[in-house]
Amino acid sequence: MIFESSEKNKSALDKHRPLPNDLVRNLEEWFRIELTYTSNAIEGNTLTRRETALVVEKGITVGGKSLAEHLEAANHAEALDWVNVQVSRKHHQISNQDVLRIHNLILKGIDDANAGHFRSVPIRISGSTVIFPNPRKVPDLMDELCKWLSKKPKLHPIELAAEAHYRLVTIHPFVDGNGRTARLLMNMILMMNGYPPAIIRKRDRLSYIDSLEKAQLGGSNEPYLRLINKAVNRSLDIYLKAVSGTEDEANETDSDILLKIGELAKRVKQPNSTIRHWTKEGLLEVAETTASGYQMYSVDMISRVETIKALKEKRLTLEEIKAELSK
Description:
With 327 residues, this protein is mainly α. The chain has helices at 4-14, 21-42, 49-58, 67-86, 96-107, 138-150, 157-171, 178-192, 205-216, 222-244, 261-268, 272-280, 300-313, 318-325, and strands at residues 258-260, 288-289, 295-298.
């Protein structure tokens, strides 16, 4: 079961409720910056985590960064604040006006003509073969999305939130800001159901986009659901470590260090050709490809290689190893 570990961690966290006010406040402040930084970074915003905190918390202007990037940080934080106020409601009460409100906050001062309005033009994403609905169909499709939520679909809360996100980005109702709005909608539903928000890390950008596109093109949605579940589980771990006092996770930063293929190969003591082969076979994930064509790997792939090596020692085939890694 995809969500078994998340259910177990949520049950463990629920035993600590109600959480101390100071702890809740500290965690909310940390998530506010982390969600803003990561969601904007996925869309190409170049503010660092620390710069995002300065803009959001201090209102400080960062030299060399555009006005739009500053507004994206401030706007996302404000939109998240609004979402946090809504979590006392139920997900079946979410309306189009709620989605439009989130979008308006996201694009306020950046594109006022389109902020809080459904698109009236066709749209395509560079590098993607996904075809989005005709703009004339967008209002009806968004009505269908909200009607679907109102019927209280019998899905696991994480799957429900992930599906709402998937449906919104597949409709692509806005000229810009679809991803940020969809992630905020997803996290609003998660928090309405007692889960912490899911953080899609910058290093997971490629896997996130690929898994969404695979489902949109008629493939399995399981990789996408597993990615969202892992994101929720990481947030649950942060809460559990904070309440147990074993680690002050809220003050740690999620390393964005990326490794070239040669650097990864050196760290795990494997030839470049092996790393390249395992990547081609889908055992290793590329976090980012540079403008020069270099494939970059997150530090997470170091432990992934060690797992692959251990499974190979058990004489598992590459397909069997891939199945094990996806669990």
